[in-house]
Amino acid sequence: MSVTRRQALLFSGLGMVGAGIVTVPISGVSAKSASTLSDSDMPRPYRTPLTIPPPLAFQTTVDANGIKTRHYTVTERLANARILPRLATPILGYNGIFPGPTIRIDQGTRAVVHMRNQLPAKHPTLGHALPTSTHLHGSASLPQFDGYANDLTLPGFYKDYQYPNFQSARSLWYHDHAVHFTAQNVYSGLAAQYLISDPIEKGLLPQGNFDIPLTVSDAMFAANGSLAFDDRDQSGLWGDVILVNGMPWPVMKVQRRVYRFRILNASVSRSYRFTLSNGEPVIMVATDGGLMPAAQTVGSWRHGNAERYEVLIDFRKYAAGTRIELRNLSNDNNRDFDNTGKIMAFDVVADAVDTKDPSWNRIPTTLASSHAMDLTAAAATKTREFRVKRHDDTWSIDDLTWEDVIASGFKKVMAEPALNAVEIWEFRNTAGGWFHPIHLHLVDFQILSRNGKPPFAYEKGPKDVAYVGEEESVRLLVQFGPHRGRYMVHCHNPTHEDHAMMLQFRVGLRADQADPNDPITAAPAVFDPVQG
Questions:
Q1: pLDDT for 401-452, tens place per residue?
Q2: Do 3-20+46-200 and 371-507 agree at the fold level?
Q3: Angstrom distances, CA of residue 8 to CA of 2, 12, 126, 226, 341
Q4: Per-residue DSSP letters for 393-440?
């Protein structure tokens, strides 16, 4: 499918959701709105309570070796969400909700997710076909269960995804990864958190009602309440309504104790610079790949697409009735609107404090080491350099795109590291005008440096996404394993990824070797005999 064809689909779809969307000039400016809602239909900050996505139900089996497996079923389907005061918004949802249900699971318990595509043949407003591919972002999954972009499940089919969950505690998320239309599908609602726990994390950080997943995204709306989609010639989509767990600028009531927040940026293109309204710092305790070696006190942090940061906020010192806002200072090359500097509010209440969880009044300083953070640059056997670019409205890495990978019969790779090899990968962004959150599938990595300087304090933990800002050069230290096979690397601004800033690397295999874990053919989707 050519870029021209994709553009035609997007432009025709945009016409369906409503003409007259206000577009904002290219760099660093503000405007009143992007939506075409009437004033009475436009949501206002801090009018709705925070909602927490429900946990996903499961059944457990135990094999002859005593290994536990949880079996989940998720159905991708069209539904209506109540985001706006009066109007319904059609979404694509895991089990019909956005965000989808949360999966919480212990390290060492395997999971099989029976993912049913019961979506319509075409997107109801944008008009593109709706095969899907589910990526568990941050999981060391086998290639055939990793959500490879061209490993597609058609409407009326299902795929059973197998997840090993041997990694240490971390905040993952599952989202659609279908080739060419990841941006539209995730924006339409196919995103949810997946949280792995382990004994170390449970002993250090708040649990249960005080361990709060926050999925942050932004949206623009057509006059009829549907999601509008304007990716500005495939450069990015910036909405004027900030959603947290699918609700606009919500309010959360909090006790006078320590809370843990798992913050995921699920926006298509918007990056954030989060801070608290009273100027107090937060305590950063975990990054994409789990616990940091040591907690970091930060006043604000730059949060790119698909990054996960876990923070502790201590509400003990605030009087009942105090309101504290989580705000957004923004970053270069966002497009900001009247209320995109607001995220959500916390209202401190006079309720009796639940002290059964010993972490209620504890701020840990020493956390946990990890394999990625224990690596040293001296162990690297190779250094590779990659440049992120844009040419003729096509995004690329080193002048290569996913179209080149497809044309090669999925053989072309950007690198062939040996199994368990340690390498340094440097990503250079000299094109100007955009930032790129670069995601490596399969692996955690350590950020060694930015422009020759140490990483930011909040990045000093295991990562799988690196914010490669304007004119930045970022060096990553990576060990490639534990699986052989082909895995993707891409910008996690999915408008860039779809057009077509995505390549792949091959671990521990030559191009001419048979691949028992071929990501497209090893575990294909199956016709679903139960429809609806």
A1: 999 999 999 999 999 999 999 999 999 998 767 899 999 999 999 999 999 9
A2: yes
A3: 10, 6, 11, 20, 33
A4: TEEEETTB-HHHHHHTTS---SB-PPTT-EEEEEEEE-S-S--EEEEE
Inter-residue contact 504 to 400 (CB < 8 Å): no
Assigned fold of 3-20+46-200: Immunoglobulin-like (2.60.40)
- What's residue 24's pLDDT? 33
CA distance 450 to 461: 15
Cα 31 to Cα 114, 273, 294, 337, 425: the distances in Å are 43, 19, 40, 5, 38
Instruction: For 371-507, give the CATH class.
Output: mainly beta
Distance CA 286, CA 192 (A): 18
Q: Is 208-361 a domain of CATH 1.20.1560.10?
A: no
* Residues of the chain below pLDDT 50: 1-27, 29
Alpha-carbon distance of 395 to 387, in angstroms, equals 11
> Measured between alpha carbons, how far is 490 from 499 in angstroms, rounded to an integer?
11
Q: Where are the domains of the chain?
A: 3-20+46-200, 208-361, 371-507
Which of the 8 DSSP states describes residue 519? T
Q: Is the sign of the CA dihedral 140, 495, 244, 100 positive or negative?
A: negative
DSSP assignment string, 449-484: EETTBPPPGGG-S-BSEEEE-TT-EEEEEEE--SS-
